[in-house]
Structures are given as structure tokens and as C-alpha cells.
Amino acid sequence: MAESIGKGVFLSGSVVYFTLRVGLDPKQVGLGLSAAGMSAFISSVLFGVIADRVGARRLLVMLFAALAVGFGLYALVDNAFHFFALVVVVGFIEYGTGPTNGALVGNLVPAEERVKLKAMMRSVFNIGFSIGIGVAAVAALSQRLLVLIPLTTAALMASAALLVTRLPDTPSRPVPVGFKRFAAVRDPRFLSVVGVSTVLASHVTVILVTMPLWALNRTSLPHFLIPLLLIFNTVFVILFQVRASRGADTVDGAGRLARRSGYWLAGGCAVIAVTALNDDIVLVSVAIVAAVLILSVAEVMQAASGWGLAFGLAPEHAQGEYLGAFDLHVITQNIIGPAMLSGLVIAFGFWGWLGIAVAALVASALIVPVARRGEVTLARATASATSP
């Protein structure tokens, strides 16, 4: 909750803070935030490996403490050079908290309860993030109050670090003979699961970027409905994420759930495609609302299936490394998805939406077999490493 409120405050208010208080150009802010996102390709896996070696709880305390310092330093930034340097460092550290947090869950929670706990944590995260947006909105009311955006986030990250110290500590698991560091990113079968999951995670881009851009530029949907639809999506995740995680605590169950999420994703895109054929305001409004509902179902299913696949395909001694590598499917979608999918539908309209739907169906057909092959590879590697 502390982390999510802090991220809600900063992510929703950072553009306002850097442009109005620091005086940066919007393009400079966008470039800096993009550079921070690119650092995730390295930090997600790297910090996962470190978590397995030094202990997830210890590393998570250090990361939150470092973030508290980093966000606090934003209050002193007064030029573009300092902004670029700090935003990349903070982004690099921030993207390491995900796999480290997951490794801590893997160390403290029995295998059959990990996916359910992650679902509960995501619901809590959405609640906290929403609260953070409200705090940022209050801070944006006055030029003087804008400095509260980084300072509030810094204080909440420090609180998160203190809270993590209250959790039990577990020793790092010994690495069996035969396993190598960075094995996750060198395993083609595991990476194939990550690749297919990247396509199934397209709901992230569609809900947050592609659908709003399409609705604003190519439909008669009243503009005030768009933020309301995003609020509806957030509430839906809060209410149904835990329920959607049922059955995803095994690789096979998670694979089947991922397959169903692809069907829902394809259905949502097909419904939006209808709005390219008829611009009647009533039809467009009904179709967009229905599509957001369908895509929200796809979102909670795919998120739960992703946790099940990540935990299920990760060796017990390398939870952080494999979880960090699996996070690349969301990181990749966040970086290349907005430009690719939005460009596709804006350029090709109806056929662009159908193209996304077809890609989702292809990914649905592939996810179960590639997940099973990844599970077989893990079983063989484990047997080989532990045999005399």
C-alpha cells in the first residue's frame, strides 16, 4: 500500500511537476521517462539475480531506501541534465523492486498460495495507486504544493523500507551443481513463454493508450467517458483480481487461464473494431463500454496466469532471476506496445483492430504447449543438477 500510493502520487503528478515547477520541456520529460523505462531490461533480471544471492528481504529494504533518497532528490532538480541523470538511476532501481518483491513472496509463502497472494497485492496496489492520484491532484492545485509530489513519494518509499524490515528473513537457497547464473535469459523455451505472454499482455496498451486514442480521434464517443472507463477498469481489477486467480497455481492451470485471456482480448478488440464501421454515438458508446468490460476480464486473467507461469517455471533457488526475466513481457509491452498498436489502428482502422485480435488468438493457441515444454525443461534441468 505504501509503495502503490507513492507510485500513484509520482506517476500521475510527475509531468505536471517537471514542467511547471522545474521548467522542463514536455519532450524532455517524455524522453527521460522513456530512458528510465529502457533501463528495466537490465535491472529487472539483474536485481532478480542479486535477490537470489543476498536475500530478497535485505535487497528490498535497500531498494526502497534508495528510492526514498532518489525521489527526495527530485525536489532539488533544476535543470535537464540533473533530471536525465536522476530519472534513469531512479528508474533502474525502481524496476528492480518487482522481481525482488516476487522473490520474497516465493521465499515466505507456500507454492500453492503465491498466486493468490500476488492477486491480493495487485488489488491493494490499485487501491493505493488511486489514492496516490488523488494526493497528486491536491498537490497540483498550487505551485507551492507541487514539491509535495516527490517528497510524499520519498516518505512513502521510506515507510515501505521500514515495513519490509518487519517481515521474516529467509536464507538464500543453495544453488545446485550445474545451474548457471542468468540461466533464465539463456533458456529459449522459457523465453518463448515470455514472448507469447508479451502478446497476451497487449491489454495493458489497449486499455491505457490505444483505445483512448482511438476513441478521441476516430469515434464520436463523448470525451468525458474516457477517464470514467479507466476508473471502471481499476475498480474491476480491485474487485475481481483475486477471484480470477483461481486455478492458476500450477503451470498447466496458468497456461489454460492465459489461453482464455487471449480469447477475451481478441473479443474486446473485435468489439472496438465495430466502431470503425458505424459512427453512431449510441452504438459507439455501447461498444466501447462493452469492450472495456471484456478487456478488463482479459486483464485479470492474464495477470493471474502470468504469476502462475512465472512461479511455476522458476527453480526454487532462482525465484528472483526467473521472475525478473518473466517481467520482461510487461516491460516490453509498455515500451513498444503504445507506438506499435496505436500506429496500427490509427493507420488501418478496422483491419488494425482485427490484426490485434488475430495476434491474440495465435498467442492463445501457443501458450499452453510452450508452457508445458518450459515445465519439462525445468524438470529435466532440476533432475540433472541434483543427480549424483
TrEMBL record:
Keyword Membrane on entry: yes
Keywords noted in UniProt: Cell membrane, Membrane, Transmembrane, Transmembrane helix, Transport
Main location: membrane
Membrane-related topology note: Multi-pass membrane protein
Keyword Repeat set for record: no
Domain Major facilitator superfamily (MFS) profile: 1-372
Stated name of the protein: MFS transporter
Transmembrane regions: 29-50, 59-77, 83-111, 123-141, 147-164, 190-215, 221-242, 263-295, 350-371
PANTHER family (alphabetical): INTEGRAL MEMBRANE TRANSPORT PROTEIN, RESISTANCE PROTEIN MDTM, PUTATIVE-RELATED-RELATED
Cellular compartment(s): Cell membrane
Pfam families: MFS_1
